[in-house]
Amino acid sequence: MGNNIPGLEQAYHFLFVGALVFLAAMVILCLIRAIIGPRIADRVVAVNMMGTMVMVIIAILALFLKEGYLVDICLIYAMISFLAVIILTKVYMGVYAECMQHKGGRILRAVPPKSESAQPGEVGIEGTEPEAGGIADILPDKKQCGEEM
After folding, report:
1. Bridge-partner residues for 107, per DSSP?
2. Is 89 in contact with 44 (CB distance < 8 Å)?
3. Per-residue pLDDT tens over the stretch 95-142
4. Closest-CA residue to 129 (of 101, 103, 99)
5. pTM here?
6. Three-state SS annotation for the chain
7. Cα 81–56–27 angle (5° rounding)?
8. I need a labelling partner for 72 at 20 to 30 A (CA). Which of 54, 90, 117, 143 fits?
9. 120-to-55, 108, 127 alpha-carbon distances in Å
């Protein structure tokens, strides 16, 4: 990077090492947030932040080590991290829906309009009644559906 300027290579070295140490500390703090919560949404956001910081760490290592293949690994990790957050969110929404059904709440869903004056592509909203079985039956404690979510 700084082959023609004396001391610049060493400055880059300290900058990269400092950034890596800072990001490693931030990943550990996000891991703590993911473990203690207190809400599921906090945990999902913490996991997403950890994935983003790991991608930045891999990109810095690609510059530091001058290894181009690490950028490819970073892109693959970005796709996997994105899919993991989408799956976690989908699972969380399913558990939340089951909890609402268990509590006797109504879950809103889109339905086609019943009136003939409705425009094509227009949808209405109606509530669904709770059903028996599902994810709520395997929750360890039915009280988890309360204020925690």
Report:
1. 128
2. yes
3. 777 777 777 655 555 555 555 655 555 555 444 444 444 443 334 444
4. 101
5. 0.64
6. CCCCCCCHHHHHHHHHHHHHHHHHHHHHHHHHHHHHCCCHHHHHHHHHHHHHHHHHHHHHHHHHHCCCHHHHHHHHHHHHHHHHHHHHHHHHHHHHHHHHHHCCCCEEEEECCCCCCCCCCCCEEEEECCCCCCHHHHCCCHHHHCCCC
7. 75
8. 90
9. 44, 21, 22
Q: Radius of gyration over alpha carbons of the chain, in Å?
A: 24
List the one residue out of 21, 56, 53 whose CA is nearest residue 34. 53
CA distance 22 to 27: 9
Virtual CA dihedral for 40, 44, 45, 50, nearest 10 degrees? 140
